[in-house]
Amino acid sequence: MIRSMGISRRLAALAISLAPASSTVLADPPEVSKDAPPEPVRNLFEKFCLSCHQGEKSEGGLDLVKLMAKGSPAASRKPWNRVKENVSGGVMPPEDNPQPSEGDVALLASWVDEEIKKIDCGATVDPGRVTIRRLNRVEYDNTIRDLTGVDFQPADDFPSDDVGYGFDNIGDVLSLPPILMEKYLAAAETIASRAIVAGAAGRPPIKTFEGVELEAAGGSTHNDDGRILSTDGEIAVAHAFPRDATYTVRVQAYGQQAGDEPARMMIKLDGKPLRSYDVTAIEGTAGTYEIQEKLPAGPARIAAAFVNDFWDPNHPEPAKRDRNLVVQAIEIEGPLNARGDEPPLSQKLIIFQTPTKPVEIGDCTVAVLERFLRRAYRRPVTGGEVAKLVRLAELARENGESYERGIQLAVQAVLASPQFLFRVELYRPKRDRKGKVIDEPGGVRLNDYEIASRLSYFLWNSMPDDELFQLASEGRLHEEAVLEAQVQRLIRDPKSDAFVESFAGQWLQLRNLKTVNPDRGQFPTFDEPLRDAMQQESERFFASLLRDDGSLLDFIDCDYSFLNERLAAHYGVPGVKGPEFRKVTLGPGGRGGLITQASVLTVTSNPSRTSPVKRGKWVLEQILGSPPPPPPPDVPQLADDSKGPLVGTLRQRMEQHRANPSCTSCHARLDPPGFGLENYNAIGAWRDMDGDLPIDAAARLPTGESFRGPAELKAILKTRKAEFVRCLGEKMLTYALGRGLEEPDVCAVEKIVKNVSDGQYRLSRMVLEIVKSDPFLKRKG
User: Which residue range or ranges hold the DUF1595 domain (predicted)?
Assistant: First the structure.
């Protein structure tokens, strides 16, 4: 009793050490904090909870003493909601422990709910600060496309971006390792050479393929001297021609001569003969055979074919019995600035002024580089920044290079600059007349150029376009009506496909679909067309809600989806013919909404079976925003099949697996949503049986609601729409800001949730509210 009194006094005061409770009585306990739980709630914790949830070895990592010391539940919403959910659902205390009365449980739930509503969102705003952000791989590719007009993916060769808070655009984790800097330098040179034809004095790019880079087709072997064609066949390379232009193709080869004619070689483009040669060169003195042709842009296959094989095993001289062709290298030079070739569109985009006489070169150089630099840096530029690039172009001309070559070198320098590679938001503090910084507790509003960049990288994963730049230069982009109009314009632009693929792909974990590998023996219908159809269904579904002003509650449940014949057959939906996707109304049953789409069901399964744990975790994290704690390190894995000590359906084996008391609390939250989806197999097809046993898709959530099957589960999730809107709002705001959310962001999230709810739960309204929020438009001073 004395020990109990000591604990109670310390809880009441919230002046608690982090060590386990002492058995001594505090003679003069301080006053009870205004944030302390009321005495009945403290008594409930003391009687039923503190024996397990106090001190360094707290069960499930939850120390209630520490949690209460943090103050009101409004400051620690997620852990308090989890406490309420576990107690209300009967998960805690465990069944073999004393249980609180219904009145105690109702009191705890009511207190948590009321406290969480008490968020102090006063006039003072803390919008937070974003770490300077490097362009991730997607942003880099898209920015290069819009800046230079060169549409290829140089970032495919970059190292993978790190992920933080579920996304790959978080400033804190986008580091710059040395290997990536090397890749940036190489990419800058390649992009500049593709974007601008350097002129007669320039050096066209040359790509040489040799050794193992030479692809063999036919009777080919490889040695140190090259590829040997000992019978009719060909050596080929794949090359992406950047634009329609003239190119030189060179083949270094020699013949192992025999018979009455020399080895003959034919150069081909995608199987079409271009020119043939008698290869009279012999070993030790390889010859170069070239052709100059105007070739179309795009990927192509260049081949050197051996077309006159000869073999005479009876020839008296062994060296003359066999005619072979040896290819040492294939070289492609260009694009060339040949007569009659039009400059590429990328060059016209960058070099919008071309001098017609020497006196105009200086002014044209300044105009071209100032415009390019302003677009590349995404802000106004100084005269000094432009002057450095102009001097670089002048040096090129002084060394005999062309006007275009000078611009090309300047472009290359810009693409390797930190001002291009990073999204920089400079802090410009206000100062009084004496130069002292004026404190700005409500945050500093971003300038219009910074807002333009935040907006375009949020919805396009790319740089601002001319309209955004123009509005920024006019100082109008921060106006609410203008900002709303631009949000709607960007959403409806095809470039917002990048937002769908990037945000939805990471929120829904669709990116994992590319790497999952279901067991083809158990699931023979799974193939690449089905994988692609799964991905397209989810992306088209998201895009439809975004652009057609749809309700984000359709993410939870609806009566339609986007299917083609392949996916419809997988779902058992009749009447859908052809490879084209179209909006299809679904019949009654469990299908409809995200959690029953095959993409989600497949990425949350194991290769040979479903995973109620993964599916339940997905629902908790992506729909309800209530992720479970990580599993203890010593928990054994459940076998992928029914062989072994655990038998029965997967559900029965899982229930045996979680009989361990240390597993019960987490599995009680994880498993029920997963059990409700057990009618879908590991690739999302409907089933009624697990092997020879019927599926049991009934379960009870920790919050107390019971359901049977996916339709009833979704109906319950839809009643928790406030949690879903908050979860989605938090994830989208994290993605938009490029940083993790902090406690001051709670007010912004609550405002977003309220306005979206008042706006009929439109997904486009959520995007707009995020753009209008203080964390998006301001930064900490």
Answer: 365-425
